[in-house]
């Protein structure tokens, strides 16, 4: 069966889009976004010398929004620029070159080039194609899903992965200290150095009826944390207290999402953020989230030091793979 890529649909849909991409009024971004608001996802300077202040800022953001942006994060801007350059170049290859990396229909693995991962209510489709592959640890990498073209794809992605550890460690340390745990305990609860970094590239072609469609519908990430870099086309939105807010594009910032596993380990103190992505009428939007995840067979539950008689566990403990299975199949956790 031939799979229809959104990129191809966008090439012949110049004025209108197929019906299955048109959202109900409950979801249409133009109707459901808070306008002219002053509320914004917090921006945190990770290099500020006063660590306690950084911890407080991260705790506030993670408890109230479940999302924040970080600047002065230590990943060289050139490394990020090169990551984006090769990802964009891959999606600009002719279709048959991209199809060489297509996820096979029966495959259990998430890795590969594809369209529409989520099965959605009412059969609606998201205006996006994607490429998934792991970038860390080396033992988990399947290079068959890494594009050979452009030739610097591998080098640039490896460089980004290498530079991510500093930010990931710093974020876990702050999240841990913010709960009164030792600095390393949160990372250890997520698998320590065995945590898996799964890169996704979202490619959202320009969309003639952008106000009626969504690139990614509302969801929370299953990961521990997600670290995302977008191109310069704004589109990400975060939900706070039942309202949708645009997340401002800040050049060179990284956007951090608290995922479901951190919400669980923190026993609900940190919130996994409900978010979605809009598409743009004139421009292609691209984003590069890295899902930082526990190893699939690691059991994740509320941290034992955070539960007691007065604070009973709010979540079940289960293997990460089991959590993902239940969420993807929409069965109770
Ligand atoms: C995702 C996601 C948002 C974006 O892929 O999980 O939330 O800005 N993407 O592309
Ligand atoms: Ni997401």
In words, what does this structure look like?
The chain has helices spanning 6-12, 29-32, 51-64, 77-91, 95-99, 153-177, 185-189, 260-265, 320-328; strands spanning 43-45, 67-71, 112-115, 129-136, 196-204, 216-219, 225-230, 236-240, 243-246, 254-258, 275-277, 285-293, 299-300, 318-319. The strands form three sheets. The protein has an eight-stranded mixed β-sheet with strand order 1-2-10-7-12-5-4-3. The chain has a four-stranded antiparallel β-sheet with strand order 6-11-8-9, with no helix packed on it. The chain has a single domain (6-295), classed as Jelly Rolls (Sandwich), CATH 2.60.120. With 333 residues, the chain is α+β, with helices and mostly antiparallel strands. The model has no long low-confidence stretch (mean pLDDT 94). Strand 1, helix 3 and strand 2 form a beta-alpha-beta unit. It binds N-oxalylglycine and nickel (II) ion. Residues 200, 202, 216, 221, 228, 230, 235-236, 275, 277, 287, 289 line the site of N-oxalylglycine.
Gist of the model:
The protein is of the alpha+beta class and 333 residues long. It has helices spanning 6-12, 29-32, 51-64, 77-91, 95-99, 153-177, 185-189, 260-265, 320-328; strands spanning 43-45, 67-71, 112-115, 129-136, 196-204, 216-219, 225-230, 236-240, 243-246, 254-258, 275-277, 285-293, 299-300, 318-319. The strands form three sheets. It has an eight-stranded mixed beta sheet with strand order 1-2-10-7-12-5-4-3. It has a four-stranded antiparallel beta sheet with strand order 6-11-8-9, with no helix packed on it.
């Amino acid at each position: 069966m031939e799979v229809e890529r959104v990129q191809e649909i966008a090439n012949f849909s110049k004025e209108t889009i197929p019906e299955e991409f048109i959202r109900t009024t409950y979801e249409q971004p133009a109707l459901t976004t808070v306008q002219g608001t002053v509320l914004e996802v917090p921006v945190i300077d990770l290099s500020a010398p006063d660590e306690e202040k950084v911890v407080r800022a991260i705790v506030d953001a993670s408890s109230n929004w479940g999302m924040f942006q970080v600047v002065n994060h230590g990943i060289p801007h050139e490394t990020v620029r090169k990551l984006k350059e090769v990802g964009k170049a891959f999606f600009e290859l002719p279709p048959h070159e991209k199809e060489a990396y297509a996820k096979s229909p029966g495959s259990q693995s998430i890795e590969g080039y594809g369209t529409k991962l989520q099965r959605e209510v009412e059969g609606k489709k998201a205006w996006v194609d994607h490429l998934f592959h792991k970038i860390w640890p080396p033992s988990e990498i399947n290079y068959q899903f890494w594009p050979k073209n452009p030739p610097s794809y591998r080098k640039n992605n490896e460089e980004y992965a290498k530079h991510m550890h500093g930010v990931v460690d710093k974020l876990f340390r702050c999240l841990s200290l913010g709960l009164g745990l030792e600095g390393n305990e949160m990372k250890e609860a997520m698998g320590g150095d065995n945590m898996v970094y799964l890169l996704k590239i979202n490619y959202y072609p320009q969309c003639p009826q952008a106000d009626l469609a969504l690139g990614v519908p509302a969801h929370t990430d299953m990961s521990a944390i997600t670290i995302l870099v977008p191109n310069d086309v704004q589109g990400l939105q975060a939900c706070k207290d039942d309202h949708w807010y645009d997340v401002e594009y800040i050049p060179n910032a990284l956007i951090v999402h608290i995922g479901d596993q951190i919400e669980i380990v923190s026993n609900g103190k940190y919130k996994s953020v409900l978010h979605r992505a809009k598409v743009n009428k004139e421009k292609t939007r691209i984003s590069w989230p890295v899902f930082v995840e526990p190893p699939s067979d690691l059991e994740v539950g509320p941290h034992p030091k955070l539960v007691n008689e007065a604070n009973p566990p709010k979540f079940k403990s289960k293997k990460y793979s089991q959590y993902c299975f239940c969420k993807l199949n929409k069965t109770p956790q």
